[in-house]
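Trying the structure run again after the queue cleared.
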Amino acid sequence: MHLNVILAQTMLGLSAGVFYAMLSLGLAIIFGLLNVINFAHGALYMLGAFVALIGYSYIGPWLGYDDFHLGFWWALIVAPVVVGCFGMLIERFMLRRLYQFDHIYGLLLTFGIALILQGLMSRYFNVSGTAYGGQPDSLSGIVNLGFMYFPTYRLFAIVVSIIVCVVTWFVIERTSLGAVLRAGVENPRLVEAFGINVPRLITLTFGFGVGLAALAGVLAAPIYSVSPLMGANLIITVFAVVVIGGMGSIGGAIVTGLALGLVQGLTQALYPPASETVIFFIMVIVLLIRPAGLFGKDTAS
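Done. Tokens:
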């Protein structure tokens, strides 16, 4: 097979891998810091895309101003804030009541929330998908990478996603704020003794993890059709990424998401029928060899 074909599929795999990385990063933050298995993460990713779509195509006519559109750049800010606030309401009034119980109760609650959100969006929007027309003109066209012509917007999404992932990792793992977050989960009474409101910290952390999913949804809107099922089609793969990287591992989520996107792209070039299942095949092997995941901490010892 020609090298240019392999490189092209690698870039396409990376463009998918950055979304795996961002979504699995949000999941890893919520599980690693809060011990919550958030099965609504895919639905909140979908909700972020719909905030961008509604802001651009629908909110103007609804308000009686046909010429009003919430542009893409504003959507990158508004959608994570709106969906993040919604996530904080979920944590404050629903999940907080379940912390003393087994993890399965939180998983069932978030699974129910995901079904409700999908049902509501399916009631009012096209299940087969709606095109998002808010992509800015400055990001249209293609870029010559030497071995292929690559869409400018996809290259932008790759760069922005990697920057967001690296900055998030640095804040959580290398700053005093991240240390306070981890300490607030491991020993909340000690942290509260220093005057820090731990429940509020947990709520904000959950909202931030959800906001990452919404940001990924906005970035995905110009690439994929905005559909009520777009999160459901992706969340199983993202959970596989998190399991392979190690539940709760921030760096593992980022590295594994990007790596598995590349693997999926190469598999598409070498043996296309296996491209949809290769991630799950890798997950089975990793779980058999290292149940804690590649970057997870083995608590058995």
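The chain has one domain: 21-235. Worth checking whether this holds up in the mutant runs.
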